[in-house]
Amino acid sequence: MFGLYASLRHIFLSGTSVAFEWATGAAVSTAVTFLSSVVYHVTSPNPRLAMITRQLDFAAIYISISIGSVADLAAVTRGFVNVPIVSIIDVPVASLILLLFFAFRRYELTCDDTFVEEYSGCTFGVGLLRRWHTDGAHTSVRFVTSFCLSSFYFTVTPAVLKNSSNAVLVLGLNAGAFILIGFGMILDNILLWPDDVWHKSSKGVSCTSFPRLGCALTSHGLWHILAFVGAVMIALGREYTVLYV
Ligand SMILES: [Zn+2]
User: Fold this and answer.
1) What separation in Å is there between the alpha carbon of 227 and the centre of ligand 1?
2) In angstroms, what is the span from residue 87 Cα to ligand 1's centroid?
């Protein structure tokens, strides 16, 4: 859907500004990120393959966050007017450091060091991701740094208040997206709902099971739905800013 949105925005929205082009780049990178997630999840039960696809998935996420941050900055500052270069490269450099750190960690550890099966037996009922590579002792590093990168938008709040014709709408969309994505991460990494309920009882949470379709909605599936809605809200805020700043 984001690929379609990136393609169609050139047809339905006119503009050739720096901010307009960066917004297209952000839409394309979001589409690539969702595509890489699909590839990763399809391959995650295979330890050898998932060693590579998980790195590619996170690389796509970091690149997407980087392009999105530059696109937001371009939109709210009318194409980087009076913006120091350090502000533009802030998130991309931080993302690159994280990407290199976790790639080095992957290189140092063996496949068996990181691969876990969180629920025994058939994984179909609780989702394929429950056989996966974890960040182990660096889980908190991944979690906290992702939180910091995701909160980037609020560092441009002064520019939004000064330049945006509707700062409440734009900040509200980004704050809403931040809360949704944050809640999804907590649901998937800490609460583990509904996976834990399913694991303890075959009755589970009926509204998350679709026997006729042969699938179930896991906590990670819910995270992806929330992340998608959050990505749409961020894109809406960006489009409004590109059009009306
Ligand atoms: Zn995922």
Assistant:
1) 10
2) 29
Please tell me the distance from the alpha carbon of residue 217 to that of residue 77, in angstroms, as a whole number.
Answer: 41
Separation of CA 15 and ligand 1 centre (Å): 34
User: How is residue 171 written in tokens?
Assistant: 């900040």
Expressed in angstroms and rounded, the spacing between residue 16 Cα and the centre of ligand 1 is 34
Structure tokens at 187: 């649901």
Question: pTM for the whole thing?
Answer: 0.88
pLDDT digits (tens, 9 = 90+) for 124-163: 555 556 778 989 899 999 989 998 999 999 999 999 999 9
d(CA 87, CA 68): 13
Query: CB under 8 Å, gap of 24 or more: what pairs does 242-245 form?
Result: 242/15, 242/17, 242/19, 242/20, 242/23, 242/75, 243/13, 244/164, 244/165, 244/166, 245/19, 245/75, 245/76, 245/78, 245/163, 245/164, 245/165
Q: Residue 206 is encoded by which pair of tokens?
A: 């009926």
Can you tell me the distance from the alpha carbon of 180 to that of 5, in angstroms, rounded to the nearest whole number? 21
Maximal C-alpha separation, the chain: 60
Distance from the alpha carbon of residue 44 to the mean position of ligand 1, in angstroms: 10
